[in-house]
Each structure stands twice: as structure tokens, then as C-alpha cells.
Amino acid sequence: MNSKTLLVIDDEKKLCDLLARILELEGYTVHKAYTGKEGLASLQQHEISVVLCDVKLPDYSGIDLVALIKQQKPFVQIINLTAYGTIADSVKAMKNGAYDYITKGDDNDKIIPLVANAFEAAAKNKLQQIQKQTDSKGFEAIIGQSPILAEAINMARKVAPSEANVLLLGETGTGKEVFAKAIHQASKHTENTLMAINCSAISADLLESELFGYKKGAFTGALADKKGLLEQADGGTLFLDEIGDMPLHMQAKILRVLEDGTFIKLGDLQTKKVSVRVIAATHKNLLAEVEKGNFREDLYYRLSVFTLQLPKLNDRKKDILLLAEHFIKLFSSSVIQMSEDFKDALLKHNWKGNIRELKNTIERTLILNEAEILHADLLTTNFNSSTETITNSLNMASVEEIHIKKVLQYTSGNKTETARLLGIGLATLYRKMEQYGILKY
């Protein structure tokens, strides 16, 4: 499966065909058009992410065509090609939304990396658009039909219009942030901001400055006043994810916000007042943490005015294939089906990481997949007892080399993104690329 599909629009047929052939040799799927009208029609017929478009076409200005394409497909990246470039044209092209504007005849060493970077930008734009659409859909963005999920959604819908603080409980990866966004969208605060922070992801000192902000000179490096998330969320919602990991001294400050809406910035002497609704989430048993002395009892009761338990994915097996189909559409521009053995493996698996694990699994299999259907042999050897992979017959070094190559191809050679997907450091990736002699990316 190759989801890297682009369109070349140029009325010079020989040049169009040559450019298409060069890009096909780089592993791209290329569609060709010799007029602007043909190009617009091709965009409607195919899932295209990048367009190479001549500036002078018989029926359109390639620069004006940029604006038309952007209106229809905002995430598509367009590179204008011209025989005689001018500064005025390049400025207009970029204003219309072109990714770049280059002169014909530039060698492949410039064209090919530029196309790869354009694909990366298109993928990011598409994900951002999907995320915006998801955020705006509220409860409609929550995928699933199981009764246990329907009950959780029903309870969340009831509390959303109120001013009550909400405590979301559930294992890591069960969708607590998605529920928080849905509650915000259905609340009286929907026109205002939802600000979110993960209390376990940053240090205590940084958490305090991020939440409350600081005055210029409050500490070394504080070169100007900064608004914290509380001020930014004023009139809206503050989502405190993994609040069970918040340090005790910070818990006291959050309690004050919940009690009277006041706080003090770092380095300030004046009290500020805000009006925010707080939605908190944790995978921990907060009552047990209260017993251990790790969490304030008064804060617990302030937060848990309305408590909502989110179900584990293992308790909503009916939703696994629906979620898998959603993630396939999210990560692939091609139409990809799931084989029966692949579906069976997903249904039998013990999803300890819940929806997040399923999402990562689908992303990984799409990276490895080269066809229009996903089979169980794309899953890891220890995925579940009924699933084995073709990599059993290979030694570990060969498997690693193949996997790194696949991910590099998937990211169009983006080393930072490749390292993230592989779960290794950037320096480790470069060392392994040198070890296996895969330095062409």
C-alpha cells in the first residue's frame, strides 16, 4: 500500500511525463493532468496530498489554481513550477497558499526532498483538520455502540450543561481527554477556551508556572510577564489530566482556585480572580491515594462533585472494529480493508493500553502494510497467542533493519518522526541507520 499520492499538472506533456516518471521511481503514486480543468477533476477522483503545478497553463493561471485547490482540499500542498520565475508571482503564489514556488530545471536533489517535505506538511494539516472536526463534534466524536459506553456518554451529557466540576476515572488510554472535550463542547462555556495540561508530564516547578503564570523577573529566564493556563481558560474550562500525580503543594493552590477562583502568579503579590470550570482525570484510585497521604481529601471532594467512570476497551469488545476502522481512515488516504484473521486477532487481544494501544497498533500495521488489506501477520509476535508473524523466520537484526526502512518510507525520511514512531532516541536511530547502511533517507 502506497498512500503517497501526488498530481502533476503541466501542459508540456514530455516534461510532465518525465517528472511523473522520476517521482514514480521514488515510490510515489503519480497522476498526470495537462490542463487546470483536468487537474481539478483528478483531485476529485483521487486521494491526492501534493500537487506539482505549472504556473502557465492553457486554461488557468497555476498561481490562481492554488487558491481554487486550497478551497476544495485545504490540507493539499501545492508546489508551483515555472520556467521564468518572478518575485511578484512567487509572493502571490505563497499568499494563495502554495507550499513552494520553484524554477523548472532544478535538479532532483531539490525536487525530491521538497516533495517529501510537502507530504509531511500535508499529513500534519490533515491531522490538524481532523482534530478540529473531532473537537467540534463533541459527543459525536466518541466512537462506539456498546451499552457500557452509551451509559457513560449519557451521564456525561447530563452533567455537561451544569457548572459542576467533573472527575473522570479510567485506565490510561480510555479516552478521558475526548470526554473532557465533549463535555466542554456541550457546556455553557463552549464559546470560550478549553485549556488542558497533563500533571504527570512535567516537573512540579514547571507545572506551577504553566498553570498560574509568572511575573517578569520571578526567576532566571522570566524575561516578561506570562499568562498561565488559568488566565487563558478564564470563562472556559480547565482540564487537569492525571491530577493524581499532582504534588501536594500544588493541590493546595488548585483547591483555592476551586473554592474562590483566586490565585497568585509566581513572583507576584496581587491576587487574581478567574471563573473556570474544572474537569479532572486520573487513572489512579484517589480515595486510596487519600488514605496514603498522597492526595488531599478536601480537594478530592471538591473535584468529585460528579464522578464518571470510563470503561476499559476489553469491556467494550463490540467497539474494537469500529475504532480500528476509524484509525485506518485517520492514518491512510487509501481505502484499506481488514482481513478476517486481522479482525479476529484484534478481538482476541488483551488491550492493556486501551484505545491508545489500538490506535498505535493500527498506525504500526499501516506502516508495514504494502497491500490494500491488513492481515494478522503484520502484528507483533507476542500480540496474542493466535497470531504469528512472518518475521519468525528472520533474525532480529534483519527484522529491525526492515522495520526501520518501512518507518522511514512512511515518514518520507523524517528522522525525528521516525524515531518517535519507533520509540527510540534520534541519536539511536542515526546509529542504527549507519549500522545497517540505510543512509539514503
Automatic annotation (TrEMBL):
| Origin: domain of life | Bacteria
Pfam families in the cross-refs? AAA_lid_14 (PF25601), HTH_8 (PF02954), Response_reg (PF00072), Sigma54_activat (PF00158)
Question: 4-aspartylphosphate: which positions carry it?
Answer: D54
* Matches recorded under InterPro entries: AAA+_ATPase, AAA_lid_NorR, CheY-like_superfamily, Homeodomain-like_sf, HTH_Fis, P-loop_NTPase, Sig_transdc_resp-reg_receiver, Sigma_54_int
List all membrane-crossing ranges.
none
Entry keywords, A to Z: ATP-binding, DNA-binding, Nucleotide-binding, Phosphoprotein, Transcription, Transcription regulation
| Alphabetized PROSITE patterns for the sequence | RESPONSE_REGULATORY, SIGMA54_INTERACT_1, SIGMA54_INTERACT_2, SIGMA54_INTERACT_4
Any GO BP: regulation of DNA-templated transcription
Q: Which residues form the Response regulatory domain?
A: 5-119
Q: What is this protein called?
A: DNA-binding transcriptional response regulator, NtrC family, contains REC, AAA-type ATPase, and a Fis-type DNA-binding domains
